[in-house]
Amino acid sequence: MASDHTRSAILAAAERLYADRGFGDVTLRDIVAEANVNLAAVNYHFGSKDELIAELFVTRSIATNRERLRELKAAEEAGGGRAPIEVILRALVGPTLRGCLGPENQRSTAARFMIRASIESVPPIRRIKNREIDHLRKFAGAMRRALPDRNEVDIYWGLNFALAMAHHTIRESERLTKLSDGQCDLDDVEDVVARVVSVATMALTAGRTESKASSKVAAR
Amino acid sequence: MASDHTRSAILAAAERLYADRGFGDVTLRDIVAEANVNLAAVNYHFGSKDELIAELFVTRSIATNRERLRELKAAEEAGGGRAPIEVILRALVGPTLRGCLGPENQRSTAARFMIRASIESVPPIRRIKNREIDHLRKFAGAMRRALPDRNEVDIYWGLNFALAMAHHTIRESERLTKLSDGQCDLDDVEDVVARVVSVATMALTAGRTESKASSKVAAR
DNA sequence: GATAGTTTCATACAACTGTTTGAATTGCAA
DNA sequence: TTGCAATTCAAACAGTTGTATGAAACTATC
After folding, report:
1. Within 13 A of A92's CA, how many CA atoms are on the CB side?
2. Across residues A179-206, what is the average pLDDT?
C-alpha cells in the first residue's frame, strides 16, 4: 500500500519545475521544497534523481506512443491492412504535436515538460529515446505497405523528414513565432499537423527515384 | 602580443573533449589536463567557462553563416536580384550540412563539436542561437523575392521546415542510420542536401493557399 | 641587467551537488 | 496495546564544481 502522497507530490513538483526552468538548474532541493517533502524522499521513492526524470519522461512518452499506435492500427484496420500514407503520417506526428503545442496559456505542465525534454537532452531521457527505434519501425512498415512501389530508402527519408518537421517546430516554436512576427499561428495545432503531413506526403509521393540524379539541381 | 600558445591549446582541447564527450561531463580540469596547462589559465584567458564555450561556438557558427550569405549573395547577383528558390534553400542548408555530416572517420573536431552543440543545448550556446534571427530574415527576404506570389506565412513555414530537416538529420543521423540498417547514406552529403532542398522546394511551390482548407486531409 | 608587464602556477576557497545514515515518527495488524 | 514495517526527517557526507588569490616565472624593453 503506502500513502503515495509524497510520491506524487514529488512527481508533480518536479514536472512543474523542469517545465519552467529546465533540467539544467533544478536541484533536488528545489524539488523537495516545491513539494514540501523531505530531501531524502526522492531517493527513498525513486532511487535517484535520474530515475525520477526517467519516470516522468517514460510516463508521458508511452502515453504518446500508445496514442500513435492506436491511430495507426485503426487506420490500417479500416483500410484492410493498408492505410493511406497521409493517415499514417498523421498518426505519427499528430499525437506528438497535439501533446506539445496549443494555446500557451492553457498549456499543461505535461506539455511544457515534453517541450523541455525535446530541447535539453539529459542522459536519462536520451537513454529512453534510443529505445524508440522499434516503435518507429512499425511506422516504417506501415509506410512500406502504403507505398509498395517506393524504395525503402525513400521511405526512411520520408519518415525522418516528417519527424524532423514535427520536432523542430516544437523545439523552435518560439523562434518561428518571433521570425514571422506572430504570423505563423502555432496555437492552431491542427493546421500545423496538416502542414507537416502535407509536406511529408509530398516528399514520399513525388516523382520516383528522386534520389540522386534528378534532384541534383543547381549543383555548385 | 603574448604567446597565444596556451590560449589555442585550451581551445583545441576543449573542442575535442566537448565533441567526444558532450558538455555535460567535461570539466575545466579535464580540459586543462588535455591541454597541459594550468587550471587558472582558462579563467585568465577567457574569463569563464561559459565564455570559452561561447567563443568556440561563435567561431564555428560565424564561419557557417558567412558561407551561407556568400552563396546567397552570389546566387542573387547572378540572377539579377532574384535567385531560384532551390538555390536559396541550398545556400541555407548546404553549409550547415556540409559542416556537420560526411564520412565519420574523416570528420573534423569542428564538425563533431557542432553536432554536439545541436544535440545538447547549454546556456551560452542557446544565447548565441537566439541572436540568429536577423540572419534568417535575410533568407526569408530572398525567398519572398523568389516567390512573390506566395503568401508570407507559407514562406516562413517553408523556411522552418527546411531548417527542421537539416538540423534534425544532423542531430539524429545515428538513429536514421540504425533505423534504416545503414541503407540511408549519411556520408553522401550532397545527396542529403539535394533531398532536403527538393522537399523544401516542394513545400514552398506546391498548390497555392495550401494553408487550411485544402490540406486538411483525413481529419479525425 | 634592472624593470615593468604579462603569463603561469600551486593552492585554497566557497558553494553546491546527489546520496546516505540512523534515529524518530507514523500507520496498520494482531 | 504491542509489535513490526513503512515512511519521514534532520543532519551529515563525500565529492565535485568553477573561480579567486598571490606568489613565482617568464619576456621584452630600456
Report:
1. 32
2. 97
Q: Which residues of A36-48 are buried (b: 16+ CB within 10 A; e: fewer)?
A: ebeeebbeebbee
Evaluate whether B100 touches B169 at the Cβ level (below 8 Å): no
What is the CA A19 to C1' D8 distance in angstroms? 27
Which string of DSSP letters, residue by residue, matches A107-142? --HHHHHHHHHHHS--HHHHHHHHTTHHHHHHHHHH
Q: What is the residue type of B47?
A: G
Query: What superfamily would CATH give domain B1-47?
Result: Homeodomain-like (1.10.10.60)
Pick the CATH number of A50-207 from 3.50.50.60, 1.10.357.10, 3.40.309.10, 2.40.50.100: 1.10.357.10
DSSP state of B173: H
Q: Do B217 and A198 touch (CB under 8 A)?
A: yes
Partner B, chain A 124-153, Cβ-Cβ below 8 Å: 130, 133, 136-137, 140, 152-153
Residue B140 φ then ψ, to 5°:
-60, -40
Q: Which nucleotide is nearest to A31 (CA to C1')?
A: C18
Domain B50-215 bears CATH identifier 1.10.3720.10 = no
Extents of the domains making up chain A = 1-47, 50-207
* Digit-coded pLDDT (tens) for B160-189: 999 999 999 999 999 999 999 999 999 999
Q: Are A197 and A83 in contact (CB under 8 A)?
A: no
Amino acid A217: pLDDT: 39
